[in-house]
Amino acid sequence: MRKLLKIVAELTRAMRLGLRPDGADLRQAAQHYPNDAALEAWIKNPPAFKPGTKMPPWEGVIEESEYPALIAYVKELGAKK
Ligand code: HEM
User: Fold this and answer.
1) Mean pLDDT of all residues in 57-81
2) What pLDDT does 40 receive?
3) Whose CA is closest to 43, among 62, 28, 25?
4) How many Cα atoms within 13 Å fall on the side-chain side of residue 41?
5) Is the CB of 31 within 6 Å of ligand 1?
6) Residue in 76, 38, 45 with CA at minimum distance from that of residue 62
7) The ligand 1 atom nearest the CA atom of 32
8) Reported pTM
9) 24 C-alpha vs ligand 1 centroid, how far in Å?
10) What is the pLDDT of residue 21?
């Protein structure tokens, strides 16, 4: 899990610096979803919500048991702002 959060942290940093124009700045992400379940649903299958998005689906890639910590981390990014 620690490794996954590190990857997300690095991706976020790269996106913020403009090094990953295909990605998104996640600092406002938590505000864009009404609750944790909605945020998790987006991460699992973004194209279901936004056809054509560059964000890949993570369902089956990220372990089910890892979602709570991942969601908490995404929300934490918003809190830092
Ligand atoms: C586990 C890793 C990842 C997580 C947790 C994650 C999470 C998210 C979240 C929560 C949003 C919504 C942001 C908002 O509404 O403000 C988002 C958007 C987005 N993500 Fe990811 N993401 C991940 C990996 C990636 C990767 C690897 C890419 C690119 C290859 C990517 C590309 C995007 C794009 C382009 C958007 C904007 C959606 C759009 O307008 O099409 N994401 N991501």
Assistant:
1) 86
2) 96
3) 62
4) 10
5) no
6) 45
7) 15
8) 0.84
9) 5
10) 66
Q: Which two tokens stand for residue 21?
A: 């124009």
Q: How far is the CA of 42 from the centre of ligand 1 (A)?
A: 9
pLDDT in tens, 19-59: 666 667 777 888 889 999 999 999 999 999 999 998 889 99
For the CA of 53, the nearest atom of ligand 1:
41
pLDDT at 5: 83
3-state SS, the chain, equals CHHHHHHHHHHHHHHHCCCCCCCCCHHHHHHHCCCHHHHHHHHHCHHHHCCCCCCCCCECCECHHHHHHHHHHHHHHHHHC
What confidence score (pLDDT) does residue 77 get? 81
Ligand 1 contact, 29 CB (< 6 A): yes
Residue appearing with tokens 């998790």:
40
Report how far residue 50's alpha carbon sits from residue 45's, in angstroms, rounded to the nearest whole number.
9
Length of the chain: 81
